[in-house]
């Protein structure tokens, strides 16, 4: 705004996101399983299926964190392909890199510290870009979506896996109670950090709903944008193609 309030809020958001992920990095994988009851594995599996990644492809997994998607892509693209796991947060990157190396994943995977809003990659470079549970943490989402479009090859696909809005009002109510009560409690018990999980619940509530995100991708220039609701719309997977 004229008075700069917007900028203060924006820089606060970025430093809050940094603080949250530095704090939770070591316990991130455990928390994912606990909070989603293991369901994040199914949501990610569907993302892999819809990505259509094949041997020899170049894939960018932005906000890749501890590397669940990267690990699967690494196997699919094979020795001729390449997967870049990029994340803004060096604690998350470190946990991700160690975890993948422990699992014997190397060779075709590269780790890059990068902000989704200004990706340090050439134009028309990747066959597939994924961002899983990352976009809601990005301050300037439109800028990030434009940056992802730029680095994709024509015909390349963007997949956005993110919390969304449940369709059923009863489910929505239950989910709201769950996120604002159980999430901070589990955060307190497992990471001794209720605050970070309160932030995550809040960021889920603030994130654009299915149709809004679809429109944002279309405005950025993606074609054939579709989305699939999972678990009643608690999570949605959006896909768009670069013309
Ligand atoms: N993709 C992984 C997954 O699905 O398990 C990790 C998701 S984790 C909830 C969100 C990740 O987004 C964190 O690792 C965080 O550091 C990263 N992140 C937040 N803002 C970002 C930005 N502007 N650019 C790149 N990564 C960002």
TrEMBL record:
Molecular function as annotated in GO: 2-methoxy-6-polyprenyl-1,4-benzoquinol methyltransferase activity; demethylmenaquinone methyltransferase activity
Record's keyword terms, sorted: Menaquinone biosynthesis, Methyltransferase, S-adenosyl-L-methionine, Transferase, Ubiquinone biosynthesis
UniProt-listed GO biological process terms: methylation
Catalytic activity: a 2-methoxy-6-(all-trans-polyprenyl)benzene-1,4-diol + S-adenosyl-L-methionine = a 5-methoxy-2-methyl-3-(all-trans-polyprenyl)benzene-1,4-diol + S-adenosyl-L-homocysteine + H(+); a 2-demethylmenaquinol + S-adenosyl-L-methionine = a menaquinol + S-adenosyl-L-homocysteine + H(+)
InterPro entries linked: SAM-dependent_MTases_sf, UbiE/COQ5_MeTrFase, UbiE/COQ5_MeTrFase_CS
Pfam families: Ubie_methyltran
Binding-site residues for S-adenosyl-L-methionine, renumbered to this chain: 66, 87, 115-116
Organism domain of life: Bacteria
Entry keyword Ribosomal protein: no
Record Gene3D superfamilies: Vaccinia Virus protein VP39
Pathway: Quinol/quinone metabolism; menaquinone biosynthesis; menaquinol from 1,4-dihydroxy-2-naphthoate: step 2/2; Cofactor biosynthesis; ubiquinone biosynthesis
The protein's Enzyme Commission number: 2.1.1.163, 2.1.1.201
SUPFAM superfamilies assigned to the protein according to its UniProt record, in alphabetical order: S-adenosyl-L-methionine-dependent methyltransferases (SSF53335)
Main function: Methyltransferase required for the conversion of demethylmenaquinol (DMKH2) to menaquinol (MKH2) and the conversion of 2-polyprenyl-6-methoxy-1,4-benzoquinol (DDMQH2) to 2-polyprenyl-3-methyl-6-methoxy-1,4-benzoquinol (DMQH2).
Family to which this protein belongs: Belongs to the class I-like SAM-binding methyltransferase superfamily. MenG/UbiE family.
Name of the protein this chain belongs to: Ubiquinone/menaquinone biosynthesis C-methyltransferase UbiE
Biological source species: Thiopseudomonas acetoxidans
